[in-house]
Amino acid sequence: MSLANLDLNLLVFLRELLRERNVTRAAQRVGVTQSAASAALSRLRRHFGDELLVRSRGGYLLSPLAVQLADQVEPVCASVERLFATSPDFCPEESDREFTLLVPDYVLAAFGERFSRELHAAAPRARLHVQVVKQALPGDVLDALRVLDGIVSAPSAALRGAGIRSLELFRDRWVCVVDADNPVLDGAGSHLALADLQRLPWVVPHHPDGGYPATFPLAPLIARLDERPRVAVRVDSYQATPYFVAGTDRVAVMQRRLAALFADRPDLRVLECPGDPPLIVESLWWHERHDEDDAHRWFRGIAARAARDPGAGLRAARPAHPTHESRPAASKRRSS
């Protein structure tokens, strides 16, 4: 269908309609009258041959087609906004461009605050849309990068295709987090052994069903164990991991930058990880079409500076809490 035959004003209304699931609120967001919004909904229904909004007891629900459209309309609108925001000379101090970034929640903890501060200081009017990776990257990474300014991720086969560029942001390493009163500390001091990892129940973020595929970040460490560890808690967030370690005999293997945020808690201990697990390398990935975009080059520079700055959450994971022997006696807490 030719764009010349489409009323692109409907695109803006469609986005707000799918966001709000309410004609009146969508009209307010777009800045049109109720009657104009109702007319726009009628045109969209005729165009797609679908109700889009389906009445229910609590209001309106999106039809199956509308759910599909909701996933598509956001990146389309973002791309159109970026297109019309383009100017011959990029001026950070005056730009109100929106940059869209897809990141794991661990990366947000590692450098998100510093990145936000750097971006705001240099471009106070610029906008940022941060999307958090749920479990895995989009199926078609190249297609996703056409509408994103970047993805922060460890290298993978999906990110090494033609047309994808990258810039290393920072490196990290794996550490272990246990409760300060975990009995394993009676003989471990500041280090754990592989046998300890094999014996203790684990808290694992984003653990896939059915095992540990080769793409699992800790697969090389798992391969060194005689038996696969028992997963006691699966949680869909890296940052939530320590909350399921405290007060139990569980262990979590997590990134040092993230663990450093919890190193001051007296009820947790951060220990070196045995087994020589692989180094963590986080990079910014983008589509090659951004290579000559002055605004995007500036954006990449901000990300690199924030990630490598000493203030970006680089506190060492400390094993400096008192040892178990020097702490007051406490009951041994076990996970159920």
TrEMBL record:
Record's keyword terms, sorted = DNA-binding, Transcription, Transcription regulation
Q: What region holds the HTH lysR-type domain?
A: 6-63
Q: Which branch of life, at top level?
A: Bacteria
Task: Name the InterPro entries on file.
Answer: LysR-type_TF, LysR_HTH_N, LysR_subst-bd, WH-like_DNA-bd_sf, WH_DNA-bd_sf, YidZ_PBP2
Q: Where is this region: Disordered?
A: 308-336
What SUPFAM superfamilies does the database record attribute to this sequence?
Periplasmic binding protein-like II, Winged helix' DNA-binding domain
From which residue to which does the signal peptide run?
Answer: none
> Which Gene3D superfamilies is this protein grouped with?
Periplasmic binding protein-like II, Winged helix-like DNA-binding domain superfamily/Winged helix DNA-binding domain
As for family, the record states: Belongs to the LysR transcriptional regulatory family.
Q: What name does this protein carry?
A: LysR family transcriptional regulator
